[in-house]
Amino acid sequence: MGAVTPLRREAAAEVEELELELLLEALFQRYGYDFRSHERALLRRKLRGVMRTRGLRTLSSLQDRALHDPAAASATLRALHVPPATLFDDTDEARQLRQLAGGCLRGAALPRIWLADCAGAEQAWTLAVILAEEGLLEHTEIHATVASDEQLEEALDAAIPLDRMAAAQAAYARAGGAGQLASHFQVDGKRAVLAPALRSHITWAQYNLVTDASFNEFNLIACRRALPDFGPLLRQRVLHLFHESLAPFGILGLDRPLQQSDPLWGSYAPAAPAPWHRRIA
């Protein structure tokens, strides 16, 4: 067999690009989830992982499976959405939340927090534990939004196997926790769930960052895991959405620091630890 020529490699790349565009359009038309403005390199990496798992060689074959096989569609969409977090898995984020939350919540009559494109129940539970320990949860509303109905069902029914609680306690301690994480949970058989007194402050909803409008004003917005997947135009659209949704002197937490050249930068003061930004206007 002869070597692959540069021309053939270029043709193969063009075909794969066409396949990718057709797959993204199919997912949008069939299921309503719009990944067409996401970063192409990240999409390819995630989709190739699904293809390897399912023994598929081309994106066209994955498109065929996703359109006709509910299990393949679910696996494809799950791979493209924000992956689930575990309790206190982001040590820096948890420490910064302990440091920053009081400054933007204590002065508000009814503090609200938005976890946009939340990475599942355990990210929201982490925040609830931090706020409870800082004495801030009692009057605070946490709005956790996810991109799909499937993610919403998983968040509402979430629980942690008891054999994971030791690892969760260690992560909690690394993130500045000084007590016993288990005191914030109740045991249900071989699983642990967040105590009702904390869970009652979390409101879950399905929400699409690509298409939906601002739905409230928030003192703190965190979107720490989704933005790297967005292309430049979509990222700009989402930043404007957050700008419209953030209260004066509220704090915005992003995956990456806003750049000085960003037109929204003038509305934020980089006084908070990066990548957290405080709105001053």
Automatic annotation (TrEMBL):
Gene Ontology biological process terms from the UniProt entry: methylation
Domain CheR-type methyltransferase: 8-254
Signal peptide start and end residues: none
PROSITE patterns for the chain: CHER
InterPro entries in UniProt: Bact_Chemotaxis_MeTrfase, CheR_C, CheR_MeTrfase, CheR_N, SAM-dependent_MTases_sf
GO terms assigned for molecular function: S-adenosylmethionine-dependent methyltransferase activity
Record keywords, A-Z: Methyltransferase, Transferase
PANTHER family in the record: CHEMOTAXIS PROTEIN, CHEMOTAXIS PROTEIN METHYLTRANSFERASE
Record-given protein name: Chemotaxis protein methyltransferase CheR
Organism from which the protein derives: Pseudoduganella namucuonensis
